[in-house]
Amino acid sequence: MNPKADKKLMGVGVLSAFAASLCCITPVLAFLSGASGLASAFSWMEPARPWLIALSVGLLGFAWYQKLKPRTAAEIQCACEDERKPPFLQSKAFLGIVTVLAALMMAFPWYGSLVYPENQTNTVIVPADQVHTVAYQIEGMTCPSCEEHVRHGASGVDGVIDVTADYRTGKAVVRFDRGRTNDEAIRRAIDATGYKVKDKEDR
Asked: Does the pLDDT at position 134 exceed 90?
């Protein structure tokens, strides 16, 4: 295979790996840049994630096959004019770097939540009759990074005691001191992350 085709295979492989994780990379980038409203901008790509991962694995697998397959007798006979060391961009080392980079991007949803700082927990005594629990149905959460983004946003509201979020159910459960905050303030904080509260249930 010619060098240009090799580069295209690697390029498309990395691009599809990046696209496969875009729905999970965006919340972290939004958090780091302070542009929280962009967090769920690419959540619509989640259904295509398995196909993009398959495309990336297939292309990079084919690139490795082209690099490692034994040369035919005809290729060996023709290779006399080019026995020099190939340029770095056409080497196995570069393909290895590209493969590792693609694997890190595809695995991002499982380690992306580590980027978020730990919320400081202060022990506060709240009378039991002041504690209220609300489950919010949230649109746009697709991975653990999304959960962490929602959790971080809701936890920032003064009076929130604890928050749990689950992207699989699309729910965030918030316990708060009703003397210091209310359902509307928490809803606004979640909406500000870029994910939208669609419904709520008092518990």
From this structure: yes
